[in-house]
């Protein structure tokens, strides 16, 4: 796989006015989301729900690709078409979550490191055969008293870079996701500092491990005050802080940056993205790779009547895709 082909995929992922829908919740997370709205967590319900999302009519107008979970990439529509095949046939790039979640970082209470490197080369080879063209690995950085440590940031950056190098070797675009969590009572300046240091460590590690940035996508968290801080920040303040942080730490050669929603309200996630694009031109396309901010409204609606609300739930997915697609162009109006 040439760098040119990886770069082509990466650019298609952030095509103007398009973003990614993250539907890669692990078994534990989807069970939690379903429990929250009273849907029994069965394999068939998980399949049906992912089918609802992926087959939303005209989704590809605003969605360039979707991140799937291991179970999901092996599932099919009710008509027997593998989801990855359905996506390619309908102009969307299949992606796959390949990390194996966060685990306590030994010796560093309150901090976590993402696992999943063992056997990753063989898994990536299989995912490519199943149709995946990009992959995702999420590292989690907590903010708290004396946290994060430099060791935690380094360990996660190192793992992200090893994953990214393996992805490129196997023909998949790595989406590198160092999520600085919104949990805590820290202020926005603390989030800025932690995000900046985390991103700098990540790009150092990518450089050291010969990862081609032209074929890499960053999935970033926005710079926000902690959710328990009680601080209120304007949309412009968040957009300015996030842009300044990214400009300070992310090389301009990167083909694009997509954001996670990370517990923001649907409207905030859209408004912040829109504001950043209005403040452009920026060095990279800025788009979305939202999970909750793309799905929450649809999941709630669907849960109230799995058959009767099917079409309305899909219409909600489309509305969220359209709003975020316009925000990726700085053209969203509330
Ligand atoms: P949220 O947008 O719900 O934060 O999820 C995005 C994601 O993929 C986190 O890894």
Automatic annotation (TrEMBL):
Pfam families: Glycolytic (PF00274). It is an enzyme of class 4 (lyase). Keywords: Glycolysis, Lyase. It catalyses: beta-D-fructose 1,6-bisphosphate = D-glyceraldehyde 3-phosphate + dihydroxyacetone phosphate. Pathway: Carbohydrate degradation; glycolysis; D-glyceraldehyde 3-phosphate and glycerone phosphate from D-glucose: step 4/4. CDD domains: FBP_aldolase_I_a (cd00948). The keyword Lyase applies. It comes from the Bacteria. Its EC number is 4.1.2.13. InterPro entries: Aldolase_I_AS (IPR029768), Aldolase_TIM (IPR013785), FBA_I (IPR000741). The keyword Lyase applies. SUPFAM superfamilies: Aldolase. Belongs to the class I fructose-bisphosphate aldolase family. NCBIfam families: FrucBisAld_I. This is Fructose-bisphosphate aldolase.
């Amino acid at each position: 796989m040439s760098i040119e082909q990886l770069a082509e995929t990466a650019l298609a992922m952030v095509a103007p006015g398009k973003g990614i829908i993250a539907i890669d919740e692990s078994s534990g997370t989807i069970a939690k989301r379903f429990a929250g709205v009273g849907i029994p967590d069965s394999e068939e319900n998980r399949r049906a729900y992912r089918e609802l999302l992926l087959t939303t009519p005209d989704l590809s107008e605003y969605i360039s690709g979707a991140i799937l979970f291991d179970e999901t990439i092996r599932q099919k529509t009710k008509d027997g078409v593998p989801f990855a095949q359905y996506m390619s046939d309908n102009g969307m790039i299949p992606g796959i979550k390949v990390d194996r979640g966060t685990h306590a970082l030994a010796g560093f209470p309150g901090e976590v490191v993402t696992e999943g490197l063992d056997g990753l080369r063989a898994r990536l080879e299989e995912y490519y055969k199943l149709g995946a063209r990009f992959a995702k690995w999420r590292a989690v950085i907590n903010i708290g008293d004396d946290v994060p440590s430099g060791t935690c940031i380094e360990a996660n950056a190192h793992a992200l870079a090893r994953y990214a190098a393996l992805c490129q070797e196997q023909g998949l675009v790595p989406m590198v996701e160092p999520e600085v969590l919104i949990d805590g009572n820290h202020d926005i300046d603390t989030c800025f500092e932690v995000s900046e240091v985390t991103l700098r460590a990540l790009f150092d590690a990518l450089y050291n491990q010969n990862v081609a940035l032209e074929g890499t996508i960053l999935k970033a968290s926005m710079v926000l005050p902690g959710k328990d801080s009680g601080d209120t920040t304007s949309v412009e303040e968040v957009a300015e802080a996030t842009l300044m942080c990214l400009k300070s730490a992310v090389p301009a050669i990167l083909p694009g940056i997509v954001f996670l929603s990370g517990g923001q309200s649907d409207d905030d996630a859209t408004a912040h993205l829109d504001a950043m694009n209005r403040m452009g031109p920026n060095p990279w396309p800025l788009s979305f790779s939202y999970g909750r901010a793309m799905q929450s409204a649809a999941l709630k609606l669907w849960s109230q009547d799995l058959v009767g609300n099917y079409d309305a739930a899909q219409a909600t997915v489309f509305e969220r895709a359209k709003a975020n697609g316009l925000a990726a162009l700085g053209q969203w109006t509330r």
